[in-house]
Design goal:
2 domains; elongated; Immunoglobulin-like; 4-stranded antiparallel sheet; alpha+beta; 3-stranded antiparallel sheet; 3 helices
Length: about 150
C-alpha cells in the first residue's frame, strides 16, 4: 500500500479547513449571542446610580421575604414581612421568562388569594426568572429577581 506524500498544498488545505471551521463556529455563536440579547437594563446607568443607595436602604427597611413557584398551571408569589405575615402590596408588576432570552417572556396578571399572589401561566420545564416590582402602601419600591426552577413532569 502506497500513500501519497504530504505536500505543502495538502498542509495548506488542512490548515485552512481547520481555521474555516473555527471561524464559522465563532460567527454562528456571535450571531446567536447578539440576536438573543434582551437589551439594556436601564437607559442611563449614571442617573439610576444616583439614588441606588437610598432605594436599596428603603427596600431593605421593608424586611420583606419573597418566594415564587409554579404549582400546576399557576405561578404563585409569596411576599411576607419580617413576622411571616403575608403582605398585600399597593401595586405589583412582573415579567416571567427565561434567563437566556426574551422569546418566552410574559407579564402575569396576579390576583391576591389567601395571602399569596397567583397568576395563570403555561410554562415548560427549566430555569425561569420572575423579575418583579412591588410598591408598598407607603410608596416604597421593592425590586427583586426570583429564580424559579420547574422540574420536568415524570
Amino acid at each position: 500500500m502506497t500513500t501519497a506524500p504530504i505536500t505543502g498544498r495538502k498542509v495548506f488545505i488542512f490548515t485552512a479547513s481547520a481555521f474555516g471551521v473555527i471561524i464559522a463556529v465563532n460567527l454562528v455563536m456571535a450571531y446567536m449571542a447578539v440576536s438573543t440579547f434582551p437589551g439594556l437594563e436601564t437607559k442611563n446607568s449614571y442617573v439610576a446610580s444616583q439614588s441606588f443607595d437610598e432605594d436599596r436602604a428603603a427596600q431593605l427597611a421593608l424586611q420583606w421575604t419573597v418566594a415564587a413557584d409554579v404549582e400546576g398551571d399557576a405561578l404563585v408569589l409569596s411576599i411576607t414581612d419580617q413576622a411571616g405575615v403575608p403582605v398585600e402590596v399597593a401595586a405589583l408588576e412582573a415579567t416571567f421568562g427565561r434567563a437566556t432570552h426574551v422569546n418566552d417572556d410574559m407579564t402575569p396578571e396576579f390576583t391576591f388569594v389567601n395571602g399569596r399572589y397567583v397568576a395563570p401561566v403555561d410554562v415548560a420545564p427549566g430555569n425561569w426568572n420572575l423579575r418583579m416590582l412591588a410598591t408598598a402602601n407607603d410608596g416604597t419600591k421593592f425590586r427583586q429577581r426570583v429564580v424559579v426552577y420547574i422540574r420536568p413532569k415524570t
